[in-house]
Design brief:
Length: 150
Amino acid sequence: MNIGDKAPEILGKDEQGREIRLSDFRGRKLVLYFYPKDNTSGCTAEACSLRDRYNDLQEAGYEVVGVSKDSATSHLKFKEKHELPFPLIADVDHTLLEAMGAWGEKSMYGKKTMGTIRTTFIINEEGIIEQIYAGKQVKTKEHADQILAK
């Protein structure tokens, strides 16, 4: 997916098993962020940054949805442990990750693997992608500030 593309209508199911659709957010901007794994240092820092500034994000017209390949059970524990106020989509089969281009080859310590590429899409009120933060562009500890500074 690129800037100017329309995001998919069906985003997936959250930690409660509820289907999340793009149209659920019509009239609001959506921060759709993809992260590798629940309860890892960078992913926790990113989620907590968005949690801590959630009211500011909402006041600026944003809603937030997180996505990873973790299970709904893992998401529920992660959400409860860190008191996250936004839904987390369990994309266990990588459908949305692949559709959005957030799944691909990664290199860690010289070893190449397939996995989630940390990516955030800012989607406007009409469902069009306005901005993309990918890989090292995402400052996990200050991610909400990055979005609000735009």
